[in-house]
Design goal:
- The structure is a single chain.
- By secondary structure, the protein is of the alpha/beta class.
- It has a single domain (15-201), classed as Rossmann fold (3-Layer(aba) Sandwich).
- The chain contains six helices and seven strands, in the order βαβββαββαβααα.
- Strands 2-3-4-1-5-7-6 form a seven-stranded mixed beta sheet, sandwiched between helices.
- It starts with 18 loop residues before the first strand and ends in a 5-residue tail after the last helix.
- The relative contact order is 0.19.
């Protein structure tokens, strides 16, 4: 942890500072609607809710920023491909001088049923290569994450093939509801803190 304050100094979120919400995915039209890109879909939905536009590239990420209920919110979509998300996230966190508790990483999770939200204050990568890259770059697992359930692959389909498939039309309505609720959860993290967001959204309250 070369560029962050010691863990004991960042146990409480810096409510007066900026919050960085990063959605993981792969850049380009080819991947836009893939299950693996639900992190990108989420930050797009947050930007839409807040009236923000991804108008610049910063540290190899598309970035938008604004304010929500008095808090500065920075949204980012790394353009380095999922498995190499770490350098981009690390550079953004250094630039904005964020405590790790003000960083939220949103990504797809095949171990959760579709539509399930799980917010955690820390943890390993669970085999998610984008998260593994971020953990390596930050030198810590002590940062919040928002796991977005996409179901396990059917039958004998491989996980890589499954996550790189588009969501089918049958999921369209449910996906829209899922993303709206995940947006609520991410913004609750910003305004109310991670404990309140976990209590409300991890247990499935509407």
């Amino acid at each position: 942890m070369k560029f962050f304050r010691r863990i004991k100094d960042i146990a409480t979120p810096d409510a007066s500072g900026a919050f960085l919400i990063v959605g993981l995915g792969n850049p380009g039209q080819r991947y836009r609607h893939n299950r693996h890109n639900i992190g990108f879909m989420l930050v797009d939905k947050i930007a839409e809710r807040l009236g923000l536009t991804f108008s610049r590239v910063q540290h190899k990420a598309l970035v938008a920023d604004g304010r929500y209920r008095g808090k500065k919110v920075i949204l980012a979509k790394p353009q380095t491909y999922m498995n190499n998300s770490g350098p981009c996230v690390g550079a953004l966190a250094r630039f904005y001088k964020l405590p790790l508790t003000n960083l939220l990483i949103a990504y797809d999770d095949v171990d959760l049923p579709f539509g399930t939200i799980r917010i955690k204050p820390s943890g390993g990568s669970s085999g998610q290569k984008g998260m593994a890259s971020i953990i390596q770059q930050l030198g810590s697992e002590e940062f919040p994450r928002l796991r977005l359930g996409i179901d396990r692959p059917p039958g004998r389909m491989s996980t890589p093939d499954y996550v790189l498939q588009d969501f089918s039309e049958a999921y369209a309505e449910e996906l829209a509801i899922f993303l709206e609720r995940a947006t609520d959860a991410a913004l609750a993290f910003v305004t109310e803190g991670i404990e309140a967001a976990m209590t409300r959204y991890n247990r499935g309250d509407q």
